[in-house]
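During the second half of the funding period, the structural biology subgroup turned its attention to how the target accommodates small molecules. The most pressing case was flavin-adenine dinucleotide, which had performed well in the primary screen but for which no bound structure existed. We therefore specified the complex as follows and requested a full 3D prediction, including the ligand pose.
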Amino acid sequence: MSNKATDYDVLIIGGGVVGTALLYTLSKYTDIRKLGLIEKYSDFGLVNSASTKNSQTLHFGDIETNYTLDKAKSVKRMSDMVMKYLEHEKQSDNDLMLFTKYSKMVLAVGRKQVEDLSKRFTTFSQLFPNLRMIKRDEIGKIEPRVVEGRNPDQEILALVTEDGYTVDFKRLCHSFVENARKENPDINILLDTRLVKIVKNKDHFTVRTDKGEFHATTVVIAAGGHSLMIAKSMGYGKNLSILSMAGSFYTAPKVLNGKVYTIQVAKLPFAAIHGDPEVHDENVTRFGPTAKPIFQLERHNGSTFFEYWKTFGLGINPIISLFKIIFDKVLFRYILVNVLYDLPFIGKRMFIKQIRMIVPSVKLNELKYAKGIGGTRPQIVNNTTRKLEMGEAKLIGDKIIFNITPSPGASTCLGNAYSDTIALMGFLDNRYKFNKEAFEKDLM
Ligand SMILES: Cc1cc2nc3c(=O)[nH]c(=O)nc-3n(C[C@H](O)[C@H](O)[C@H](O)COP(=O)(O)OP(=O)(O)OC[C@H]3O[C@@H](n4cnc5c(N)ncnc54)[C@H](O)[C@@H]3O)c2cc1C
C-alpha cells in the first residue's frame, strides 16, 4: 500500500533519543512539514535510551578520563545543548522530572593515578571552569563513604563539579516528541511499525514496513546497532562490524550522595566502573556498567541473534579483526573478568573489589545484581584498520544517513541532530531553511 498522505521529505527510522531529537530539531528549527518517524515498539525509548538500559549520565568529558581534550571539547559542545534543553523544560514545567542534578567526581586512588589526575586538571580545568580539585577531607565531606574504612596511607584525589546531570533519556524522548508535535501537528508518527527493507529509487526511497509501504525523499536511520544492519543491506558500511558490549549493573541502598567515577583505562572505549544515584530514586546507588560481548543487537532480546550476525558480516575479514581486537592483552583480560561479573555467586564476589575502590566499606549483603537492567553498546569494529573505534559512527549515503550510537550517544543526541539537519538541507537541494541562528541561540 502506498498513499500520497504517507509521502515524506524526511522519514526517521527509530524512536530512541537520537531519532526523537532529530524529529524535534526538524520540527522546531526548519520549515520542512512532511516529516515522519517509524518505531517498531509501542513506545519511544524502550531500547538503549530506556533509563533501565544506560547509566543515565549526561557526559561532558570533565570526569571521563579516557577522553582527550579534543574529544571532551566536542562532547561538551553537544552535551551543553541537552543541558540547555533540560533546564529550559524544567523552567517551563518543574513536574516533568526529566533529570536530577547531583554532584559528580572522578576519583584517583594511589600515587600514580593521583599524579595523572592532577596533571589532567591543569589542562581540563580551562575547558571546565566549574571543576575543582579536592583532597581527602573535602572528598569525605561530599562523599563520606568514599573515605570511611579506607587505608589512611592510600593517596586519593578527586575532581568534582556540581554539574552531575542524571537524565531519564526515555522521558527526554517523550519530551522531544511532544514539543515536535506542538511545532508541527502534521508530523506522522507510526509506533508498532517495523522497517523491513529500504529500496533506493531515482528520486525517492521506498520504505517497506510490516504495516505497508511509504515513500520518502530522504531517510535517517537512528536504529542503534540495527542502523549498520540496514546500511549493509543497502551496500554501505561494508568494512564495519559491531562488537555488541552488554553492560550490567549492581545496586546498593544509598551509599553515595552523587556520582563517583573511577579512572578509565585509556585503551578501552567503555566507561570505567562508576557509582550513581538512580535518576528518580536517590536512595538507590547503581554501580556499573560492566562490559561483556554478546551476540545480540538488543540486550534481553534473543530474536536479535541472527540480526547480530547479519550486521557482523560472515566473511573471514571481520573474524580476523575480532580476534586481533579481543586478543589484545588489556582487552582480553578486561573482557574475561567482565564476563565473570555476570555469573551468580562468583560475579558479586569479584565485582565488589571494583566497588571497594569507590566505597571501601561496602558489604556483600548490601549489593544486589540488577536483573534485567543494562543495554548493549554497538561498538564499531573497523575491518580496514582492524581497530575498535571510540564513540558513535555516522555513515552518510545518497540522501540517507545511518547513525550507530554506542555511549555517549544519548548525551550527543542534539549535536547529532544539528549535523544531520545540515546534511538533510543539502539532500533536499536547500529548498527548506534551517534556522541555525535560533537553534544556536537556544541551545549552544
Ligand atoms: C550500559 C550502557 C550505559 C550507557 N550509558 C550512557 C550514559 O550514561 N550516557 C550516554 O549519553 N549514553 C549512554 N549509553 C549510550 C546510550 O544509551 C545510547 O547511545 C543511546 O540511547 C542511543 O540512542 P538511539 O536512539 O540511537 O538508540 P535506541 O535508544 O536503541 O533507539 C533505537 C530505536 O530504533 C528502533 N528500531 C530498531 N530497528 C528498527 C526497525 N527495523 N524498525 C523500526 N524501528 C527500529 C528501536 O526499537 C529503538 O527504539 C549507554 C549505553 C549502555 C548500553
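Two results from this model are relevant to the next phase. The first strand starts at residue 7 and ends at 13. DSSP finds 13 helices and 20 strands in the chain.
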